[in-house]
């Protein structure tokens, strides 16, 4: 009898143990399934009835939507990737009026058009209309300031950092210190990691290495962190990387620089880049009055070669033209050697050894370009 009870007891113990394991497994699976879910909840009394849309990068790239009634809504968005992404909101009422949300931040004089996909985003309070100073919106579009978001750690890091600390022409000790302090405060921030990656070639490999060492937790296991780490390790030996040949307008590959010139003005651009096309007439004027010791070179990063050649036929640039895409195996070498971060137009002045004398990002005026060359000819 005692043996029987003991066996029953052991069987029950094993049963309960496996039950506990099963329940734990279900809980783990359930948690992992909800890890990338973002709940966007709102109570905005003065928001008309209509449809609220969540978008990524562009209002045309709509991720999800939900009907709003009396300003109340709760939308659950499932992020398909493991890291938080940047999303924005716009609303279309029953009269087809579009309202584009802007969000107040903790950075003075800086608002954001996006937040990050934390697990819970709450918007409570009235919206306020405003008129942007740099554009004239269509009659059916209204820009609005949202009440301050109640959000998670990733959006908090974004709203407490801002783009201003990464808007620089020359890296100086103050900028390095500021970025380090931000990472120390938010060592989990994908926004800070993204901005460092975006500007990686503006920093020395030693500086990027110091930044990376300050990040903590699961972000260090992310693909973006690992890719940046691998890329940065290569930069320590970038002088040993041979400069590749690039494809020219004939479809053949040739050397980038002609050594008979002392200096070389290289402009990175693309056919789809408005500021790049706007700058071309200025470059033509500069080219026609160029110093004979200066070589002009344009390098397109177009993915579509037909679009590149069409632009060349339209612009009639008489100087040397090349093309390279991000998919090209040599693109990384170009990135490293020319300190190309991806923002264009990017103008760089080099000597015959590819040593960078000076560089600048963005649309330049004719006077800017003249000064850019004149100063460095001395």
Name the features.
single chain, 378 residues, alpha+beta, Glutaredoxin, 3 domains, 7-stranded mixed sheet, 18 strands, 26% strand
Structure write-up:
There is one protein chain. With 378 residues, the chain is an alpha+beta fold. The chain folds into three domains: 37-152; 161-236, no CATH class; 246-377, Glutaredoxin (3-Layer(aba) Sandwich). It contains ten helices and 18 strands. It has helices at residues 2-34, 153-159, 173-185, 190-198, 205-212, 223-235, 274-288, 305-315, 331-338, 366-377; strands at 37-43, 50-56, 58-68, 72-78, 86-93, 98-104, 111-112, 115-116, 120-124, 128-130, 141-145, 246-248, 253-254, 263-269, 294-300, 320-323, 346-351, 356-361. The strands form three sheets. Strands 2, 3, 5, 6, 7, 8, 10 and 11 form an eight-stranded mixed beta sheet that branches. Mean pLDDT is 87; it is low at 1-34.
């Amino acid at each position: 009898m005692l043996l029987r009870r003991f066996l029953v007891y052991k069987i029950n113990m094993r049963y309960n143990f496996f039950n506990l394991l099963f329940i734990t497994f279900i809980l783990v699976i359930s948690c992992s399934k909800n890890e990338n879910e973002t709940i966007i909840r709102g109570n905005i009394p003065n928001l008309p009835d209509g449809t609220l849309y969540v978008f990524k990068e562009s209002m045309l790239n709509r991720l999800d939507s939900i009907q709003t009634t009396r300003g109340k809504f709760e939308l659950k968005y499932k992020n398909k990737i493991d890291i938080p992404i940047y999303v924005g909101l716009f609303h279309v009422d029953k009269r087809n009026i579009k309202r584009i949300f802007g969000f107040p931040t903790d950075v003075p004089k800086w608002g954001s058009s996006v937040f990050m996909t934390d697990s819970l985003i709450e918007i409570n309070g009235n919206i306020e209309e405003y008129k942007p100073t740099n554009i004239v919106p269509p009659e059916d579009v209204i820009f609005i300031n949202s009440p301050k978001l109640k959000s998670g750690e990733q959006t908090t890091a974004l709203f407490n950092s801002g783009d201003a600390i990464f808007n620089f022409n020359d890296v100086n000790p103050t900028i390095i210190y500021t970025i380090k302090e931000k990472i120390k405060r938010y060592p989990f921030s994908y926004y800070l990691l993204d901005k460092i990656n975006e500007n990686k070639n503006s920093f020395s490999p030693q500086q990027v290495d110091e930044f990376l060492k300050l990040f903590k937790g699961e972000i260090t296991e992310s693909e973006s962190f690992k890719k940046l780490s691998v890329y940065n390790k290569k930069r320590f030996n970038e002088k040993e990387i041979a400069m590749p040949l690039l494809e020219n307008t004939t479809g053949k590959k040739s050397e980038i620089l002609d050594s008979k010139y002392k200096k070389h003005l290289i402009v990175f651009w693309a056919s789809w880049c408005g500021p790049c096309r706007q700058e071309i007439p200025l470059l033509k004027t500069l080219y026609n009055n160029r110093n004979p010791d200066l070589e002009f070179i344009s390098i397109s990063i177009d993915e579509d070669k037909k679009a590149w050649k069409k632009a060349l036929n339209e612009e009639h640039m008489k100087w040397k033209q090349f093309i390279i895409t991000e998919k090209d195996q040599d693109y990384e070498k170009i990135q490293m050697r020319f300190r190309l971060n991806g923002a264009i137009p990017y103008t760089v002045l080099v000597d015959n050894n590819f040593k960078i004398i000076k560089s600048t990002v963005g649309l330049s005026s004719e006077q800017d370009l003249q000064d850019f060359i004149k100063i460095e000819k001395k």
